[in-house]
Amino acid sequence: MIRVKILGRILEYSNDKKIIIDMFEEINNIIMISGYMLSHLNIDGINVYENHQKVIEENIEKIDEIKVVLVSKEDILRENINELIEYVERLYNQSLKIGKKYYLNDVNEYKDVVDVMEGIMFVQKTLNVVGSHVEIKNVFRINEIIQNYNIIFTKIEKCMVANDLVSMGDIFSVEIRGKAIELLKEIKAIEL
Fold this sequence. Notes:
Helix 3 packs antiparallel against helix 4. By secondary structure, the protein is an alpha+beta fold. It has a 5-stranded mixed beta sheet. The longest helix is centred in the middle third of the chain and has 31 residues, at about 75-105. It folds into 2 domains: about 1-65, no CATH class; about 75-190, Up-down Bundle (Four Helix Bundle (Hemerythrin (Met), subunit A)). A hairpin with a 2-residue loop joins strand 1 (about 1-5) and strand 2 (about 10-15). The chain contains 6 helices and 5 strands, in the order ββαββαβαααα. About 20% of the residues are buried.
């Protein structure tokens, strides 16, 4: 018998693969009504953060207990915002180092450029997730900064084609760093 613990309730199911869909349906219904979000499952003392159904299917015969660990939406959104703040602070610090590499012609690939572009896409996606749950009062200013990064990336592409490393150094040391300061200020101002 599997005992599922969720929000002070205990649900019991047989150790049979046939119950998995019904079990997840009931868990999801409870979560939807609760206002909380799933963090992870603790299956017989082991935290499982992804592939829940697969893990349960593979171990169904020997599972005794599943604890459904929930967090508030606010906690997850706050965690997302903290991750953004940490990333933008790293971007600010790293962009000066990257700029110096270009000034010193100490670059043999453009991996830094790709990393920064992917990071800005991460910022944009994460802000979209946060914005789908709360109203971001300064959303227009944040979007404007993101658009400025897109313009900067166009400049970077032109510099790469021209192999203009000094201008690349300027872009990282001045423009990307400057926008990081602005972005950091706006992200820190987001209220939940």
